[in-house]
Amino acid sequence: MPHLFKYKHISPTILELYWPPSIEESTLMEMMSMKTQIQGIWQQELLEVTMGYHCLSLRFKSTFQLQDILNELELLAEKSVHSDSSMNRKRWTIPVWYSGKDLDHVASYASMSTDEVISLHQSSHYLLYFYGFMPGFMYLGGLDQQLFVPRKKQPDPLIEKGAVAIGGKQTGIYPQNSPGGWHVIGKTPVPLFNVTSDPPIKPQPGDYITFKAVSAEHYQDIISLLKENNYQLDYEEI
């Protein structure tokens, strides 16, 4: 199949498609184009289509004819490469109070001051690839390599909802209380996953995330505005 690294027929109802194992924006755009086309063609036959960094997993409601699906996917793969993306993409700005319990450790590991860590962390634009691990947990690309810090050997039993953390080559936000092995450098007051909202998550794969440092006072102000339903995340169209 052109442009796809390989496919794997996992079960009579599951087919997985793989791209070369690199974390690239061009790969994400191609995969998202493929996902949209797949959902359009097999809307009635599919239970779900899920994404990873370089994998699409197609779960069908019933067994399917593999060769028929592959023949159609060959045509879709060609279109996904040569078509221009018509996605409405956004860049979201997420406020962060950089006061995390592991901020000093990250600074020490990176041989820089905490102010330098904060400045570097909020200077990048992070591409949202997909959600996983738990509902609302973003997998982001774009962390400056100077901030790469190995995950903790002993995970914390509890990382609080809203924690902004670094783990390995990634940074992310814990959308709910959870055990975790990432290093907490700050916290956002803004809930990013809400089952009562439509959609429950506003940033979508293909969007960018930026972090903006706020003071403790501003952090509390945002919490007050949220309680009054008078706060919205800032974003711009890109």
TrEMBL record:
GO terms for molecular function: ATP binding; hydrolase activity. Gene3D superfamilies: Cyclophilin-like. Keywords: ATP-binding, Hydrolase, Nucleotide-binding. It comes from the Bacteria. Pfam families: CT_C_D (PF02682). Residues 5-203 form the Carboxyltransferase domain. InterPro entries: CT_C_D, Cyclophilin-like_dom_sf, PxpB. SMART domains: AHS1. The keyword Ribonucleoprotein does not apply. NCBIfam families: 5-oxoprolinase subunit PxpB. This is TIGR00370 family protein. The lineage of its organism: Bacteria, Pseudomonadati, Bacteroidota, Cytophagia, Cytophagales.
